[in-house]
Amino acid sequence: MYTTLRDGLIVTGGKERPTKEGGAVKLWDQEMKRCRAFQLETGQPVENVRSVCRGKGKILVGTKDGEIMEVGEKNAASNTMINGHTQGGIWGLAAHPSKDVCVSASDDGTVRIWDLADKKLLNKVSLGRPAKCTSYSANGEMLAIGMDHGEFLLLLVNSLTVWGKKRDRSVAVQDVCFSPDNRFLAVGSADGAVDFYDL
Fold first, then answer.
1. DSSP for 145-182?
2. Residue 5 to residues 2, 16, 33, 38, 54, Cα–Cα distance (Å)
3. What global pTM score does this model have?
4. Lowest-pLDDT range, 84-88, 132-136, 154-158?
5. How far apart are CA 62 and CA 60, in angstroms?
6. For labelling alongside 12, which of 40, 110, 146, 165 has CA 20 to 30 A away?
7. How far is Cα 133 from Cα 147, in angstroms, rounded to an integer?
8. Residue 27, CA distances (Å) to 31, 48, 75, 144, 185 in order
9. Which of 115, 109, 181, 186 is closest to 144 using CA atoms?
């Protein structure tokens, strides 16, 4: 919650899902009657609001995912200012073979694709478990993701949908790498083994 002394209005943030009546960020009067609710339109699902601040006709919103958004009070337009991973470390980082794009994989269970020129998030997917490494295929059309429990996933870059997955080890995958012809995948695990897969 945040209040301003100038007009006494209170802004709140929560984790409720957006409805027809509004979203998780709300503006209230001094009698706690709701004045307005704001949808956070980011193109990505917003998990929940952790902090809010208000001033000069704008509301700053901090989310559980480490994102900071700015919402205009008059037009309700939202603009994402900062994106980020949440809890744990970022273990995987790989550059696209031909574009100014990179991918990161983290303990927060997400894989995120970043535009390096504009310094913004392009896409993200939640995997449900900590991700430990990542690699682009040589043609940039596929991603390999190594997980903490020994599984690896193959994702199509355009949609971030799962193309395939396999688990032959019970320890964390520490490195994944495509062959130059995109035909094979090498998977290195914490037990010192390297497995090769014919894709």
1. EEETTSEEEEEETTTTEEEEEEE--SS-EEEEEE-TTS
2. 10, 27, 17, 21, 11
3. 0.68
4. 84-88
5. 7
6. 110
7. 7
8. 12, 17, 14, 44, 52
9. 186
